């Protein structure tokens, strides 16, 4: 039998669970607020990475790579989480300000990713587990390429930035949407200017440090377990998994992933409060306390692969329109 996804008959369980929790605990609505302090964190972390990049510019290459792995990856991963907050408009009420601070996140990430992420990530929430609509689901071709051999899965995790950048091409609703709009163009222009300025000010090694920090933040690194933890199936019938380990303290509670999918309009600082408000809805679910353990399980367990995901029936796809 050829490997394949697991197919469910109904929609993902977040929809019904959210309704139940709100009905049982209406006070949970008080957690659905904006957190403008995230903007201060964005500016501070970008400044921190620029300072580290300036120091790395004078270091040997082996020390630069070590610094990117041991320090820079954690900062850049945190910036991706804060970009995610901006994508959900959880920082400011004004959409333009959320986009602006998403752009600022990229100033330490090298890649112009904020506006593309904003465009596609919300499909992941609206169409979780729907093959042609969820950009987090690998294609059949990619799943077959990954296979179940340890070295191939490790290589795939290492190259996750490439995989994630290409995956939106399979989305049905965006096939007729122009690739470029004014915000994506602005994202590219600002990144070119920022990266050029960094090279002029600190030298090419500074940019190399930032680029390696991003590569490690998204790939084969203790933080890389997050990409497997969130939705790869290790318990029958469960789409989403949370992580309650210590690294939540350096990634703005991103491990509270069931809570986030239930309430995507709750900012990072309130996600633990969701679990405390309705504990019976989360303690019964499988969760993790080690991202390294999750990554080791995925790579070395031959039963785990790109096909270890639950697919749900497709819902009606809205007419694709471009953002102005």
Task: Compose a concise summary of this entry.
This protein has 324 residues and is an all-alpha fold. It has 14 helices and 4 strands.
Describe this structure in words.
The structure is a single chain. The protein has 324 residues and is mainly alpha-helical. It has one domain (6-311). It is 52% helix and 2% strand. The chain has 14 helices and four strands. The protein has helices at residues 14-24, 37-56, 61-87, 95-105, 114-126, 140-146, 150-158, 160-166, 182-202, 204-218, 225-229, 257-262, 271-277, 291-300; strands at residues 6-7, 242-243, 287-288, 310-311. The strands form two sheets. It has a two-stranded parallel sheet. Strands 2-3 form a two-stranded parallel ribbon. α2 (37-56) crosses α10 and α3 (61-87) packs across α10 (204-218). The termini are far apart. The model is unreliable at 320-324 (pLDDT under 50).
Shape category = globular
- The overall pLDDT average reads 92
Number of strands: 4
Sketch the major β-sheet: 2 strands, parallel
Regions with little confidence, pLDDT below 50 for 5+ residues: 320-324
State the separation between the terminal residues, measured CA to CA: 47 Å
Tell me the radius of gyration: 19 Å
Q: What proportion strand?
A: under 5%
Helical stretch tally: 14
Q: Provide the structure class.
A: mainly alpha
* Helix share bin: 40-55%
Strand order of the largest sheet: 1-4
